[in-house]
Design a protein that fits this description.
11% strand, UDP-N-acetylmuramoyl-L-alanine:D-glutamate ligase, alpha/beta, 2 domains
Length: 175
């Protein structure tokens, strides 16, 4: 879910999903404050740097800042965090908030034309990968490939790649 839906709807959907054993993926965009219960109902939170700063109150200026903020998000009760870092890739933060596990997923090197739909491409592809049963790190690689293709094109919908294009980029080699 994105936060372009009314917050009451997002909170209710997350609660119903949790009660029924359905995973909840939240892209906290546009950035806004989130309630404690909603955070605890999220299996995978996918914020960018500015959204992470809003949620944690911590500036993201280094890799260590990103790791620290990811651990803070885990301490709020979120299952896993995938912090998107633009051209630097993504940081997965999982496990015990006191000693979380971190994994960096590099971005695919591409010539950036327009970033309009990069986040949407990333989140949609991540949800697809998880829905197909991929482990989180592989789903993030898949999402990274989709986002990489999207930034090479102008516009929102026209920039979203076909599955075959994402699969071809992945076959060409991981970054």
């Amino acid at each position: 879910m994105p936060l372009e839906t009314p917050m009451d709807t997002v909170e209710t959907a997350a609660q119903i999903a949790r009660e029924r054993g359905v995973g909840v993926i939240l892209n906290p965009a546009p950035a806004q404050d989130l309630g404690k219960q909603l955070l605890q109902d999220i299996d995978v939170l996918i914020p960018n740097e500015s959204e992470t700063e809003r949620l944690t109150g911590q500036k993201i200026q280094s890799d260590e800042d990103a790791r620290s903020a990811g651990a803070v998000l885990l301490s709020f009760g979120v299952g896993s965090v995938v912090l998107t870092l633009g051209g630097k890739g993504a940081l997965i933060v999982e496990g015990d908030p006191a000693s979380p596990a971190y994994q960096n997923i590099s971005a695919y090197p591409v010539r950036v034309v327009d970033t309009t739909a990069a986040g949407d491409a990333f989140v949609g592809a991540l949800a697809t990968g998880l829905g197909e049963g991929l482990p989180l790190n592989e789903a993030v690689r898949f999402a990274s490939a989709a986002a990489a293709i999207s930034v090479t094109r102008v516009g929102a919908q026209p920039s979203l790649p076909y599955r075959s294009e994402v699969d071809r980029l992945i076959r060409a080699g991981n970054p």
